[in-house]
Structures are given as structure tokens and as C-alpha cells.
Specification:
Length: 292
């Protein structure tokens, strides 16, 4: 069985700079080696000239490395944003962050296709696809940086596994891959006994009260998975809980992920702040998880 590097998320944007090295050292002291370059730090790299050297010093002092990067995301940065005056600036922000990610040694740059119009507008699937294609055409030269753009599956109509596959097949390039989000797949999973009435209200809103479940997200995406987000939930809402506290079948999923032909890494995406999980417990849990 392959040994796949693991990287950890942490809500750095909630922490004072004075304590960041302490927390990085907590990860190191609990056996962790890698963290994820997250959106809060990327925003600072874009907006604060000089933050690059600050971040380098934090890593040097703690001995931690950044192995993966979650790209900028949200209404200002998703691939299919319909804020047209913003789109050119969005592309430039991503290009800058991708360059930083490569410089730090990250192997992939995870991106959201986008879903906000599912909630607030009646934009068609075709329109949203065209916007995402336009964005990717401008970003795929990431090949020169040596990183893979990893499209993340989520739980709205515009970023289902089939939509991820649409873009992977459209471009057919090794510069594009998939970030398999285990929690999102679990929300969308079609399982015996699953009651659609229990879905969180935002699920019914974005699907217009007609949630379409997915019987085999992993099977569809496995050939293209380069990295993954590992977190748990109850199957009805995106909770980002610690693995083992929800309904994801980790004993089956982890060995299957290790066999994916393009896999580069795995990422802990537990929301440790909202779940009140200590760094020690986080590291212990994932150390055991990686043994499956």
C-alpha cells in the first residue's frame, strides 16, 4: 500500500500572528509535517506585500512545510463567478497565488467551480459552464509552475462529480485533476434508508427542492483524483466533522484513495475550530486513519 503525504488545514485567519508559530509547533510536536496553504493566507499574499517572507519565517521556525494549497474561493474567486467586471482581477489573483503555491512547494491548487448562482439566480448550467471554461483556459498554463489544478466536487448542481468530469474531459490535460471531497460526496451519496426530508435547508434551496443524489462519486472521479479533502458529516449537511464522528465509511475509502493512479496527497479538512478539536486529537485521528 502506498504511503501518501498528509497535509492539515487550520483556521489561520482566526489566530493572531503572535501565536501562529506556537500552533505550527504544536502540529510538529504531534507528528505532523505538512500544512495546507489556505485561503486566509493567500488573501494576505495578494494584498500584503512582504507577507511572503513572514510566512517563510513561520515555516522555518516551526519546521513545518506546505505541501498543498486550497485556492482562493467564494463569490469573488470561483471559476464561474457571474460578477463580470471582477473576472479579470479574479484570474490575476489566482495566477499570483498559484505562483506562490509553486514557490512554497505545493503539488496541487484546489479550486471551486462555483455554486452561488444556484442559490440566488436562475443562471443556466450552460452559462455557468462557459464561464468556468473561460477561467480555466486562462489558468491552465499552470503547467509551467509544475502544479495541478484540482477541481473539487461539492453538493450543488453546478459542481457535482459529473460537472467536474465535464471539465476534465473538455480539457483532457494532466494539468487538471480532481480534489475528491469525501464530506461533500457523503452529503450527495445515494444510500439505502437515506431520507431526503432531512437535508439541510440550503440543500433544498440550491436544488430547488429536488436534490439529485449521486450513487458513485468516488468511482466516477477515481482516475482523476490527485488530492482529497477528508472530513465527516451526518450525510445531510456539510459539517466538516472529525473522521469517525459521521457516516463516511473510512475503512473502505482510505485504501481506495491510496490506489488512485494520480494521487499525490491527502488533506485533513476537519473544521477543528467549530468542532472544538485539539491539535493533538486531530493528529492522532489522522495518524490512525492513514493506517487503513
Amino acid at each position: 500500500m502506498n504511503t501518501i503525504p498528509l497535509s492539515h488545514f487550520f483556521p489561520w485567519g482566526k489566530i493572531s500572528d503572535d501565536f501562529i508559530v506556537n500552533i505550527l509547533c504544536e502540529f510538529a510536536d504531534n507528528g505532523a509535517e505538512n500544512i495546507v496553504l489556505d485561503t486566509s493566507w493567500e488573501k494576505r499574499l495578494v494584498r500584503e506585500p512582504g507577507f511572503y517572507t513572514t510566512l517563510l519565517s513561520w515555516l522555518r521556525e516551526s519546521g513545518m512545510k506546505m505541501f498543498e494549497c486550497h485556492g482562493l474561493w467564494g463569490t469573488a474567486w470561483d471559476l464561474n463567478i457571474t460578477d463580470r467586471p471582477r473576472r479579470s482581477a479574479m484570474i490575476e489573483d489566482h495566477k499570483l497565488c498559484m505562483a506562490y503555491a509553486a514557490d512554497f512547494g505545493c503539488r496541487s491548487y484546489v479550486m471551486h467551480i462555483g455554486a452561488y448562482d444556484c442559490y440566488y439566480k436562475n443562471t443556466t448550467l450552460g452559462e455557468m459552464r462557459a464561464l468556468a471554461v473561460d477561467s480555466l483556459e486562462k489558468l491552465i498554463p499552470a503547467e509551467k509552475l509544475g502544479i495541478v489544478i484540482a477541481l473539487e466536487n461539492s453538493f450543488e448542481p453546478f459542481n457535482t462529480p459529473d460537472e467536474v468530469l465535464y471539465f476534465l474531459h473538455y480539457f483532457n490535460t494532466p494539468v487538471l485533476g480532481c480534489c475528491f471531497d469525501a464530506g461533500h460526496a457523503n452529503v450527495m451519496a445515494k444510500k439505502p434508508g437515506k431520507d431526503p426530508a432531512k437535508y439541510a435547508s440550503y440543500m433544498n434551496l440550491c436544488w430547488k427542492n429536488g436534490v439529485v443524489q449521486e450513487p458513485d462519486a468516488f468511482g466516477k472521479l477515481a482516475p482523476h483524483i490527485v488530492t482529497c479533502h477528508l472530513h465527516d458529516n451526518n450525510g445531510y449537511e456539510d459539517q466538516h466533522r472529525l473522521p469517525g464522528t459521521g457516516t463516511v465509511d473510512w475503512k473502505s475509502l482510505i485504501p481506495a484513495l491510496k490506489q488512485c493512479p494520480r494521487i499525490l496527497s491527502m488533506q485533513n479538512e476537519t473544521n477543528s475550530a467549530s468542532q472544538h478539536v485539539s491539535i493533538a486529537k486531530l493528529c492522532r485521528t489522522f495518524e490512525e486513519l492513514m493506517k487503513f
